[in-house]
Design a protein that fits this description.
Structural class: alpha/beta
Number of helices: 16
Number of strands: 18
Strand content: 15-25%
CATH superfamily of the largest domain: Carbon-nitrogen hydrolase
Helix content: 25-40%
Shape: elongated
CATH architecture of the largest domain: 4-Layer Sandwich
CATH class of the largest domain: Alpha Beta
Oligomer: single chain
Length: 546
């Protein structure tokens, strides 16, 4: 039997466009001899549709597009994710379903059993879970099919009591299909394959797993769909970070592709997230990036060029009163290397005007301390937003997760922008991305990577004046954020004191108000700042004691 996996890149809410993606891939699969083609979860609405599900007409219009697909199934069976009406339960009356189309008819539908309501998932807000699980009988050359949806395959790692796959096999399923929209983090593809391989071997059933690909708001979906045989061996796998259609014989298998190495995965996810954020909104003229000569802005610009092309990216260098000469040199060198235009705006005259205004307001002083540091960042933010308005470009914020965690940033300054590209990337990983960018040629100046990081808002300033070493900072933050550890269980990394670790926790807690006002952060870890991490701004519990 020839089958096909079609990992498509739907745009949330583009119901007609998404239906056309499905139709085109199904026709190609049929032409290649496939008898069954599988698409991702909620392929017609795109995932996650969020409160669009509550908008009048949205589900009705999606059902109309589903009906338009029926003639396409005349010559090939189609399994895809769709929203269907369900028996009302309280205010909820929708189900997240895997739907089987065959012979120009909708012949089976299976609602999702386990509705994830953790991290970025909030499906219990909208959907009714499956009350029962039924097998689609064998017909027209297809074996008896068990249909499952994403989380239904995660029984083992999540500790769910009921195993939908096992129940479907006991009811006679000879092939299990899982339609999925599983977001990326580094190593996630390997986790999925290992989990589904164990599931297939446990129940002695082949499984087809089709995952969404693409960026939708903060979430990035890596695709990397695959098939496993009844012994749990991977017999076919699709690429990461790109749409793909793989047609293969279920008995013989298809191409099995290796995973990219971790830094390449991280780069691929960020590039896809940027590209789709622009493409799906039809943003016209591209991006503008403030170039400081440092590694964060350099990596952001490199990723933007990879995502959008060099003609769609502009750089703005803004030297100030405490900028070193090499900062401007490195920013201009980066522009030449990436092939982007870099303009220069001198911050100093504007800064001096602000100081004069401060003296008029607050009295004559030589030093306004943090006020005059932050105003430099805010001047740069204003210039970037001026470039955005004047040229219809989106500002890409350049701050990293380490800095955002502890509030080492200026509200309305370096936090301005429409998308925080590195907001879920720790400083150590930013350096890894920079080295990865230079693997074939020097895209990012070596000096940018090697020099000590500095905000350059005061004479001789270095990040290390205000922060612990980044290897220490990152190690503590990973425990606190991804590991969700508090003061009682935090383990100071080698060379750091417990007081240093607790101080990091205190800064993490006290800067939630800044993160709440930051741009949208592309999620590339298991716990990003955004919809998957919800903490109050006003509270009195401190992880670091006190």
């Amino acid at each position: 039997m020839r089958v096909a996996l079609a990992q498509v890149n739907p745009t949330v809410g583009d119901l007609g466009g998404n239906r056309r993606l499905v139709e085109e891939a199904a026709r190609k699969a049929e032409a290649a001899g496939a008898g069954l083609v599988v698409f991702p979860e909620l392929a017609l609405t795109g995932y996650p549709p969020m409160d669009l599900l509550r908008r009048d007409g949205f589900v009705r219009d999606q059902l109309r597009e589903l009906e338009r697909l029926l003639p396409v199934s005349r010559g090939i069976a189609i399994v895809l994710g769709a929203v269907l009406p369900a028996e009302p339960r309280g205010s909820k009356h929708l189900a997240n379903c895997a739907v089987l189309l065959r012979g120009s008819a909708r012949v089976a539908a299976q609602a999702k059993t386990w509705l994830p309501t953790y991290d970025v998932f909030d499906e219990d807000r909208y959907f009714v879970p499956a009350g029962e699980r039924r097998v689609a009988p064998a017909a027209d050359g297809l074996p008896a099919l068990g249909l499952t949806v994403c989380e239904d395959a995660w029984t083992e790692p999540m500790g769910y009591e009921l195993d939908p796959t096992g129940e479907l096999v006991r009811r006679g399923a000879a092939l299990v299909v899982n339609v999925s929209a599983s977001p990326f983090h580094v190593g996630k593809a390997a986790e999925r394959r290992a989990m589904v391989s164990r599931l297939a071997a446990r129940h002695a059933v082949p499984i087809l797993f089709c995952n969404q690909v693409g960026g939708n708001d903060e979430l990035v979906f890596d695709g990397a769909s695959f098939a496993v045989d009844a012994r749990g061996r991977v017999i076919a796998s699709l690429p990461h970070f790109e749409t793909a259609l793989e047609v293969f014989d279920l008995d013989a298998g298809g191409e099995v592709r290796p995973d990219p190495q971790p830094t390449a995965q991280l780069e691929g996810a960020l590039v896809l997230g940027i590209r789709d954020y622009f493409r799906k909104q039809k943003l016209p003229l591209g991006a503008v990036v403030g170039l400081s000569g440092g590694v964060d802005s350099a990596v952001t610009a490199h990723l933007a060029v990879e995502a959008l092309g060099r003609d769609a990216v502009a750089g703005l260098a803004m030297p100030g009163p405490f900028s070193s000469s090499h900062s401007l040199e490195d920013a201009l060198a980066l522009g030449r290397s990436l092939g982007i235009e870099v303009r220069v705006a001198d911050v100093r005259p504007i800064y001096e005007a602000y100081l004069a205004a401060f003296r008029a307001l607050f009295g004559a002083r030589e030093d306004f301390g943090l006020t005059q540091q932050n105003v430099q960042s805010r001047i740069r933010g204003a210039l970037l937003m001026a470039a955005s308005n004047a040229e219809n470009r989106l500002v890409l914020a350049t701050g990293n997760k380490s800095e955002l965690s502890v509030g080492y940033c200026t509200l309305y300054g370096d936090t301005v922008g429409g998308l925080a590209v590195l907001g879920d990337v720790y400083k150590g990983d930013v350096y890894a991305l920079a080295r990865h960018a230079n693997r074939e040629r020097e895209r990012i100046p070596r000096r940018t990577i090697e020099k000590p990081p500095s905000a350059e808002l005061a004479p001789g300033q270095l990040d290390s004046d205000d922060l612990p070493p980044y290897d220490v900072l990152d190690a503590v933050l990973r425990q606190a954020i991804e590991g969700e550890r508090g003061a009682a269980s935090i383990e100071p990394p080698s060379g750091a004191t417990r007081e240093t670790a607790l101080g990091i926790l205190r800064r993490l807690d006290r800067n939630e108000y800044k993160r709440r006002q930051a741009p949208l952060v592309l999620r590339v870890s298991t716990k990003a700042f955004g919809s998957g991490r919800r903490l109050p701004i006003v509270h009195r519990y401190e992880s670091g004691g006190g």
